Amino acid sequence: MKTLIIATSFSEMVDQFGLHTEAFIAHFIAFAILAAVVVFFGIKPVMQQLEERRRRIEEGEAMHARSEKELAEVQERSIGIVNEARDQAKAELDHARQLSEKLRAERAAKAETDAQTILQNAHQQAEIDTRRQEEALREEFARLLAQATQKVTGKVLTEEDHRIINAEAINQLP
User: Fold this and answer.
1) 152-165: average pLDDT
2) CA-to-CA distance for 169 and 139, rounded, in angstroms?
3) What are the backbone dihedrals phi and psi of residue 103, each rounded to the nearest 5 degrees, phi first?
4) What is the DSSP code string of 73-107?
5) What is the count of structural domains for the chain?
6) From residue 74, how far is each of 11, 17, 65, 83 by CA, in Å?
7) Is 9 among the domain residues?
8) Cβ contacts of residue 170 below 8 Å, gap of 6+?
9) Would residue 42 count as lying in a domain?
10) Contact 158, 138 (CB under 8 A)
């Protein structure tokens, strides 16, 4: 009975709304075709593009993560290289300072040695010059003595007399 009521009410509904089976089937087929066209030519390509875009975004994020990791590694290596270069430069600077100090000490020692040599040479030269001056003064004294003797004695002295007087005068000088 309920089925009969539903069927009666269904047929009343069909009459009341003007539902025709042929038109309904035609509209349904048209809708199905339109839905299939939209799905195959609209939704599927859009979904494929969205999936491709999602995949590229994931690849980009993965690449970004790799790049950040590589950047961090490069920064660590560069810091290590800079520290190593700084340590090497410090070691070379210390070595250069040591060499400089050693060279300065060697130059100072050489300058001291050269100064001592110059002083010794100067003293030797002064002694030689003093002896020459003394010798020149003795010869001059002997010559003056010979002239004085010649004037006092009134005699002309020979070369032999000059030599004898000079030798005696030089031997008596301190």
Assistant:
1) 72
2) 9
3) -65, -40
4) HHHHHHHHHHHHHHHHHHHHHHHHHHHHHHHHHHH
5) 1
6) 81, 77, 14, 14
7) no
8) 138, 139, 141, 142
9) yes
10) no
Determine, yes or no, domain membership for 110: yes
Which tokens in the block code for residue 119? 């002083």
| Residue type (1 letter), 78 | S
The token duo for 63 is 């690449």
CA atoms within 13 A on the CB side of 36: 6
Q: How far apart are the C-alpha atoms of 174 and 169, rounded to whole Å? A: 10
Q: How far is CA 68 from its chain centroid?
A: 28
Cβ-in-10-Å burial (0-12, 13-18, 19+) of 94 comes to: exposed
Domain of residue 61, residue span: 32-172
Selection from 150, 145, 151, 147 nearest residue 168 by Cα: 145
pLDDT band (50, 70, 90) for residue 53: very high
Burial class of 150 by CB neighbour count within 10 A (0 to 12, 13 to 18, 19+)? middle
Region at 154 (left for phi over 0; alpha for psi -120 to 50; beta for the rest): left
| Residue 23, φ and ψ in degrees, nearest 5 | -70, -40
How many residues can be counted in the chain? Answer: 174
pLDDT (tens digit per residue) in 87-124: 999 999 999 999 999 999 999 898 989 889 998 988 89
